[in-house]
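Q: Here's a chain of 381 amino acids. Please give me its 3D structure as tokens.
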Amino acid sequence: MQTLILDTRVTLSMTTTSNQRKRERNPPLQDVLTRIETVIQTVVTSVSKGEAPVLSVMNRSSWANVRFHESIGLVLKPDASVVTLRCDWPSSATKFALILKLLSVIYKLVQSDSYATKRDIYYNDPQLFGSQKTVDSIVDDISCMLKVPRRSLHVFATSKGLISGDLCYLEEDGTMVDCSSSTTAVPVSSNVSGINHIVSSAKFILIVEKDATFQRLLDDDFCTRLSPCIIITGKGVPDVNSRLMVRKLWDTLHVPVFALVDADPHGIEIMCIYKYGSVSMAFEARSLTVPSVLWLGLLPSDIQRYRIPEEAMIPFSQADERKINSLRSRPYITCQPTWENEIKAMQRLKQKAEIQSLASIAPRFLTRVYLPNKLRYGCWI
């Protein structure tokens, strides 16, 4: 079975050169400082002239600002539209001030070669920022504005993902991390770029949408029972660190990457984030996406193939209808007939199924029958 996992259907799709797989290196500290100084100098110059200073940030929520590249995913267009923030406009004055505040914080962190989490920054002045989401969004805006990877700002995000399996590596501070425990998962590192000396005999990587499913695989000793592998979950919509980790492992190990998600529009969108990225983070697509991700399950066609009981199915909601229509219009779906056919089948059925619905067939059907057969016979798309 292990040799079948490395079938040429998978390996041929991953024949990119090592140079293409290398992640863009972080710019020197002085370069980041210079870019911040340039922004501040523009503001000071405007003030000295008696003009209202202006900041321009990329519109990271617009599909019109991204294009689809099959070997990368969703990437930012060179001529992407920007949003103008003026300090004398009530609608943008608050965000203008918060950007300057965070630029000041980031400048001090980079200058002193120290680091902080986004959560640290928020709790230094929660009344000023209002919410953690505000800090998260502005840090990404600044990363995009300065055209540097977010990790170069010396601001880390606390990871929510978990990883387990045949994997050992060193953290940047020299800490050895062993993910091979059969009962306990390891939190995804908050500094993925600092990981080195990765050692693994894994035959494949399995992205798991939900924490509950991930724990089921862990409890059933999936990583060693079937074949040496690595399982990782972002616990729903993945955080940046989980996406960076999947990309780092793919770059290093050159093994197939599969996705196990619910047969519903939300699960498909989560899988697409790992594979093709998101609109809001399109400016960092080259370090976040894994275009070779394969859809292992739960496929909509599996619902009838495995005769999942009707009582385990969930009717479509209006939100599901809107989401599936949105998915069908996206360029990364329309270019993949097999994926598009599965989505059409789900829409015709007007029902969805969670991975847990397989338990209605048999308690351990997922780990003892479904996944082994899928991997053994190449039943992925």
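Q: Can you summarize the key feature?
A: The chain has a mean pLDDT of 90.
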